[in-house]
Design goal:
Bound molecules: adenosine-5'-triphosphate
Protein name: ABC transporter ATP-binding protein
Domain ABC transporter: 2-227
Structural class: alpha+beta
Strand order of the largest sheet: 6-7-8-3-9-10
GO molecular function: ATP binding
Organism: Pseudoalteromonas rhizosphaerae
Keywords: ATP-binding, Cell membrane, Membrane, Nucleotide-binding, Transport
Radius of gyration: 24 Å
Number of helices: 8
Length: 338
Amino acid sequence: MLSVSQLSIDYGSNRVVSDLNLLLGESEILMLVGPTGCGKSTILQALAGLIPISEGEINLGKWQATPKLTVPPEKRSVGMVFQDFALFPHLTVEQNIGFRLKDTAVADHWIALLGLDDFRHKKPATLSGGQKQRVALARTLAHQPDFVLLDEPLSNLDAALKDMLRWDIRNALKKAGVPAIWVTHDQEEALSIGDRVGVLKAGKIQQLDTPERCFSVPNNRFVARFLGEASFINGFFENNQATTAIGNVPALGVDCQQGEVDVLLRPDDVMLVQGEIGNNGVVVWVRFEGGSRLCAVELACKTVVTSRVSHEVVVYPGDSVHVSLSTSHPLAVYKRAI
Ligand SMILES: Nc1ncnc2c1ncn2[C@@H]1O[C@H](COP(=O)(O)OP(=O)(O)OP(=O)(O)O)[C@@H](O)[C@H]1O
């Protein structure tokens, strides 16, 4: 099992990763997300042994790396999948996957599993981006690594292909039973694919948790906003309930026990109804999302909340509407920001 403790990484005098702790479970897929420059790729490179670490320890059981005890990449039993595929251009698909393998049956297994049979004898230049990434993944898994690191494997692909390939990659990793750390820019991808999600800000983990908890009970407002559309409304919190201007809901205090709070609202927590009477807000903007519309509504108190409605509900900026809260799951509440 890969364990990382108190890991810090510097570039010169610049500390870019601080005090990282994590345990990667057997066949677990851990998604790492965070804004650009927060240190995601740096962490992967350090785990692979491509850059030195400044403090802490990386331990796989069969090897252990510290600032003084370096372990070269080829001794780490790690597989890496990059966004640029990194295939040998002069070798065929089959040769790329079987490169330096003693047992070609393992290569055949992954060629079949990743649907590459028809491309066996082709060179990478003649393949699509999605096919190249399948080859890269097959080559990685055929070497039976103890863990896999994926650095934005889908970022060079178009949206439709991404959607399919992310599930194929997840299924292949699970079939191989190999744990993985997967860096992505895409919050939806992180939430849907990951067994756990780690949210980074400026080289520090803000939350390392299940996708559900990261989304519904974020450790702080940064995580709340980073993982999806979030609005906050003033409320009073006591006895596991929050009272707000648009409804009372079950609540969970993240950093407080009771008192004046800000309640985290996801668009699906806010119900929007169009009618003549009882309206309490005005639509500020509307974004069409295909199957739904995301609407921002300004309340009398000037707070703006967002609500997701069916695409069948046609709303325009300037419309008067009624918004309310009626959730059965507890909403996260935070001590009131001053
Ligand atoms: N070789 C390097 N030398 C000096 N600083 C570096 C080097 N590589 C990265 N950095 C800096 O370290 C920080 C973390 O970079 P890193 O590439 O890990 O971020 P990231 O989260 O992967 O970003 P992105 O999402 O844009 O890929 C950034 O401030 C970056 O400028």
